[in-house]
Amino acid sequence: MPAQPLLCLHGWLDNANSFLPLANALPDLSLLALDLAGHGHSSHRSADAHYYLFDYVADIATLCRQQGWQQLIVIGHSMGGMIATVLAASFPELVSKLVLVDSLGLITTTPAETATQLRKAVISRLQSHQKQKPQYATLAEAATARQQQSDFDLATAMLLTERGCEPTAAGFSWRADVKLREVSAFRLSEAQARAVIRNLQCPVLALMSAQIPVEIRQAIQHFKADYPRLELVQCPGGHHLHMTDAVFCANQIRRFVSAEPV
Predict the structure, then answer these.
(1) Are 73 and 2 in contact (CB under 8 A)?
(2) Which are the catalytic amino acids?
(3) Domain boundaries in the chain?
(4) Could you report the per-residue pLDDT of 10-66, keeping only the tens digit for each?
(5) CATH class for domain 6-110+186-258?
(6) Burial profile 106-138: b = 16 or more Cβ within 10 angstroms, e = fewer
(7) How far apart are CA 90 and CA 86, in angstroms?
(8) What is the CA angle 230-53-29, rounded to 5?
């Protein structure tokens, strides 16, 4: 068993509870799941700040240095996989192995779309100040709303809801910062993204869902050849396969973690 924890990074608008099914299926390994800034029980960024992928990378790199961690095994789902990818490419001394859960490549923008991307980002920021979080009478009602936007059952939705909601005067609402829904003002070009991925030194296991969303299917075609040491495994289940098919994922992760580096 690794002396250091397997660091788990959740997806956009999820929280650390998304890794509970996987942790239960891996009792022999020490998993540590975080709430990323603006999610779950973690603080929101300041009023004048926004949420950039690279700021999350800085958060994790800072945590690793504070804890004295090096050569971690990192598991990242969706957005968490993108954060983990950039972390491993930029700080190879921090990551020994990388597990991507329904996450491959990075979200990019063509140079010609830069002005349009900036325009969308500014408009979304102006609109976010006017948005109100939905209110629910009970946690079960909130979980039902979460399930309707996802690919899992109500019990799975409740895992995310229990950590993702907080009491309000009207009942319950989501803890997540409303600014998380803003359009990003900055994205890498495809050439920049490829350069980052090609800088990966560690072996990578990508567990991809059988029900792959279009954007992830496109990412596989665009980026899989850029990973120097990639093992691609198709898994049953949808986008949250580490929750809905945790035993299958756990078996793949256990094999990957215990394998000697080639």
Answers:
(1) yes
(2) 78
(3) 6-110+186-258
(4) 999 999 999 999 999 999 999 999 999 999 999 999 999 999 999 999 999 999 999
(5) alpha beta
(6) bebbeeeeeeebeeebeebeeebeeeeeeebee
(7) 6
(8) 50
